Amino acid sequence: MRLDIVTENRLGITQEVLAVLTRHGVDVGAVEVIAHHIYIDAPSLDTTAFGRLQGDVFAVAGVRSLTQLDLLPGAWRRLQLDALLSALADPVLAIDERGAIAIYNRAFADAIGCDETSLIGRSLAEAIGDNDLARDLGRQQFRQVARDLTLRGRAYLVEARPITADAGTVRGGVLILHAASRIGERLSALQGGEAQGFAALIGESAVMRDLRARAQRVATVDAPLLIRGETGTGKELVARACHGVSHRRDAPFLALNCAALPESLAESELFGYAAGAFTGAQKGGKPGLLEMAQGGTVFLDEIGEMSLYLQAKLLRVLNDGRFRRVGGEREIRADVRIVSATHRPLEDMVRQGAFREDLYYRLNVLQLSVPALRERGEDILLLAENFVGSAAAQIGKPAPRLTPATRDALLTAPWPGNVRQLQNMVFRAVTLADEQALHPADFDLHAEQSMPDAGCWQTALDAFERDYLSRLYPLHPSSRKLAAVLGLSHTAVANKLRKYGIGG
Ligand SMILES: Nc1ncnc2c1ncn2[C@@H]1O[C@H](COP(=O)(O)OP(=O)(O)OP(=O)(O)O)[C@@H](O)[C@H]1O
């Protein structure tokens, strides 16, 4: 049983209360004393024993109340901390001044490939297999701003912050491992707000000027908009800008990534659920994005990944302008503009039956196409300079300049991951560079290219298939022959050849 005893602030009162428990033979597991409260964890104390000792506790001068509670504040804080840590996608850990791990999150255990065994107390050097980092951290009193680290083939940027005690003495440090493929997100978070309009869309190339001009026009028309473009080209930024100049700009812009959630979760996120819709559901039900964005815009990213079931439900919203929460009876009017985005060839998906044709036409009333970074010429430099500025401001150091050789290297790089990849690389380069100038080597262009963005699995597969089939086709120049060689069905091969425009 756990107790909360509220008392006056009197010297020695805690000892007197504990003496009562000792007299009653109660085994005390933990005690916490915080301003007017004495919290006691007494695992063996049952209701009968509690009834017997109550009077004696109240007999101690200054005791005001005695109640039972579920958790001691310390345990409650530990639970909150655990939940907080496990909610962080980036690996995070704290080490003591000797370099031993004091606390860490699941993402860190996963990053080093650790199974269930606890890492607490283990040395950081041993856990990450990097003696230099642990030594440097100690030497610099955990004030090192950033450092590269590779764990099981994945690149991270280590950010260290000292843990200081009252007198300013350094007691250890907190390490945050930013995945190289995600650090650019911090920059876009800084850029923030959807109400920015088109000023947020950097680029003076002809293709970007065209896009901006066209987007300005379609933004104000209150009809569904489909935004096409490779992954990381800025589709969401365009969607936000369109919302920001539309008459809906004062209402919310809410986004759902259709590829990120399993069908049932995506369904309740989008449509919400009624009270008692399923076990574990929130008591009074929960509104979905369509309801919460009333008057605004719902952005459906990666619409090509939406399941056929949800496609049918979305079609009904677009046709009737109404929907019901999951498990709900009441019809709700959907006063939202649907803006969707995809990097997938939706027309091919329609032909293959993976995407509903009727929905395709409903979503595609207006269309914008965002050009790939490699088609934007000198915009690459404009973007890079802008990202250098924001990265330097965020880290708190002067913005380094790009050398002429770096500018050439950036302009000729193939940028498979587009603006997001550029953003990540710039952030990493600015953080790691010691000098006033960024050289080509700081960008590690080659390494980044061999590490495609986590989001573009399908693009990578498509690129592989296209390359593989176009090399094999001349050797086996018919879909039947190719199918026999590859051990695939004739239809599957014929579809792929058509998809990639191979063999006429
Ligand atoms: N023209 C631009 N000017 C400034 N920042 C840009 C521009 N285009 C893209 N970005 C930045 O690049 C990152 C990727 O952009 P965004 O998320 O909009 O791409 P996306 O095409 O929606 O990606 P995905 O296909 O993966 O959903 C964001 O941080 C965004 O702020």
TrEMBL record:
Residues 201-431 form the Sigma-54 factor interaction domain. Residues 2-71 form the ACT domain. Keywords: Aromatic hydrocarbons catabolism, ATP-binding, Cytoplasm, DNA-binding, Nucleotide-binding, Repressor, Transcription, Transcription regulation. InterPro entries: AAA+_ATPase (IPR003593), AAA_lid_NorR (IPR058031), ACT_dom (IPR002912), Homeodomain-like_sf (IPR009057), HTH_TyrR (IPR030828), P-loop_NTPase (IPR027417), PAS (IPR000014), PAS-like_dom_sf (IPR035965). It comes from the Bacteria. Its main location: cytoplasm. It is found in: Cytoplasm. The keyword Transcription regulation applies. The keyword GTP-binding does not apply. Pfam families: AAA_lid_14, HTH_50, PAS, Sigma54_activat. Residues 77-132 form the PAS domain. Gene3D superfamilies: 1.10.8.60, 3.30.70.260, Homeodomain-like, P-loop containing nucleotide triphosphate hydrolases, PAS domain. SUPFAM superfamilies: Homeodomain-like, P-loop containing nucleoside triphosphate hydrolases, PYP-like sensor domain (PAS domain). This is HTH-type transcriptional regulatory protein TyrR.
